[in-house]
């Protein structure tokens, strides 16, 4: 499954090692609103372009990323971030990619 990341999971950031075994698909953008939440950023619905990275991840990495993002699939309403399916656009070739991203809840 494909995930778009925009914060502490980016290359060069403090939690990049979580995605070390994932396939890096490249830089991309999504349409959302980026916020500075203090220790980390968050996105919500919006019409700005947010730059980040696309990865292809497996279930093991998904569980690790869910934990970092404070997402519990059994209690999404009580999660810090929730997964949302959306379209990202590759910066290298302009192709649209269906993926998910963690939105601030």
UniProtKB/TrEMBL annotation:
Domain Gamma-glutamylcyclotransferase AIG2-like: residue ranges: 3-104
The record's section on Pfam families has: GGACT (PF06094)
The family database entries (CDD domains) matched by this protein are listed as:
GGCT_like
Chain segments annotated as coiled-coil in the UniProt record = none
Q: Extract the Gene3D superfamilies matched here.
A: Gamma-glutamyl cyclotransferase-like
What is this protein's record name?
Gamma-glutamylcyclotransferase AIG2-like domain-containing protein
